[in-house]
Amino acid sequence: MSGPLEDVRILDLTQVQAGPSCTQLLAWLGADVIKLEEPVVGDRTRTEMAHTPEMDSFYYLIFNANKRSVCLDLKSENGKAVFERLVGVCDVVIENFGPGGMERFSLGYQRVKAIDPQIIYASIKGFGTYGPYSEYKSFENIAQAMSGAMSTNGQAGGPPQMLSTGVGDSGSGLHCAIGILAALYRRQRTGAGDYVEVSMQDAVVNLNRVRMVQTLGSGEPLARLGNRMFGPPALVYQCRPGGPNDYVSLYIGGEAWDSLLAIIGRAELIGDTRYSTREARAQNSDEIETFLTEWTSRHTKYEVMEALNEVGIPCGAVLDTREVLEDPHLRAREMVVEVDDPQRGTYSAIGCPVKLSSNTVTVTPPPLLGQHSGEVLSELLGIGQKELQDLSESGVI
């Protein structure tokens, strides 16, 4: 597809979420992403959390649109030889194996750099390739725990709580995409290749840095405050009809307090010293949350959102996952799109979050396992039908 990265070719050895989220974003920006997968097995998310047998899982589908799939056995000498030939026609190699994974294939950065000194080689690891924890493995929850994010999330007095958002995996992918783009820009100026490294722990620490402000100032760990994180009144309120996601989230600051009191029919409290300052509201937060809930509970979350936004008070409905897919604003922005898949049919998918005036993104179905093996090896390496057949029969592709 065309786009700002249309002349960039990426050899993608990643799987699950951290790496695929990075390469999918680059594919949406126009890069030719060649997803290398183990023959027969493929990316494990093809089968994890699958709703329909014999069909790729939505877990795989949401991270692998706009790519081409090539099966290649890197454990075999012939497979390594094909990989090294592909390196010669690609700009970027990216992997997110566990510690030492690529080295066990004898395809680590130094080997790939020897093949092409201009290559950009990107790695996403749980804790990076150096430092005391570099040999440790990581997953989303580990990254959140080791970054401070989990310690700041949860109700006051309760245990640390994991965020449902993939800040460890997708957060690492976003950071890696930025690093790759910076390396590509540097290579354009200097002709030199580069090594891009992102640690999941590092990425979440970066995303969590606003939670570090108080600790940097006081030296004390930040306490968990639940929905009072930004100070009272709380950020979330129940709405009508009272279902599990019938809530709004709002933020009160500056002169918005007086406007809020007028909207909810409590204008008599304007100027009341119990509530007129942030400090006073902190001391009387229980009473505030009680009379705010009395008002919000008489209205739907969309009614509350509209009423408060009309007077400039930031407020949003708490959308459940189905409501997100149906949201008219997200659909208008093509953040939720319809994809026509020859195997699955039409389904809703998540679109590209980065909008460029020069780039129109059409989300295409993720590739079937090995769908483009013959196409890519013939197109890029000039491998003929006889050699393709031999590679296939020997299990290399």
Primary descriptors:
37% helix, 11 strands, formyl-coa transferase, domain 3, alpha/beta, 2 domains, six-stranded parallel β-sheet, three-stranded antiparallel β-sheet, 17 helices
Explain the layout of strands and helices.
Elements: E1 9-12, H1 18-28, E2 32-37, H2 58-61, E3 68-71, H3 77-87, E4 92-95, H4 101-104, H5 109-115, E5 120-125, H6 140-147, H7 169-190, E6 194-199, H8 200-207, H9 213-218, E7 236-238, E8 247-250, H10 256-263, H11 278-283, H12 285-296, H13 301-310, E9 315-317, H14 321-326, H15 328-332, E10 336-341, E11 345-350, H16 373-381, H17 385-393
Parallel strand pairs: 1-2, 1-4, 2-3, 4-5, 5-6
Antiparallel strand pairs: 7-8, 8-9, 10-11
Helix pairs in contact: 1-7, 6-8, 7-8
Q: What would you say this structure looks like, in words?
A:
- This protein is an alpha/beta fold.
- The chain has helices spanning 18-28, 58-61, 77-87, 101-104, 109-115, 140-147, 169-190, 200-207, 213-218, 256-263, 278-283, 285-296, 301-310, 321-326, 328-332, 373-381, 385-393; strands spanning 9-12, 32-37, 68-71, 92-95, 120-125, 194-199, 236-238, 247-250, 315-317, 336-341, 345-350.
- It has 2 domains: 9-207 and 328-393, Crotonobetainyl-coa:carnitine coa-transferase, domain 1 (Rossmann fold, 3-Layer(aba) Sandwich), CATH 3.40.50; 228-238 and 247-317, formyl-coa transferase, domain 3.
- The strands form 3 sheets. It has a 6-stranded parallel β-sheet, sandwiched between helices. It has a 3-stranded antiparallel β-sheet with strand order 7-8-9, covered by helices on one side. It has a two-stranded antiparallel ribbon with strand order 10-11.
- Helix 1 packs across helix 7.
- The chain starts with 8 loop residues before the first strand and ends with a helix.
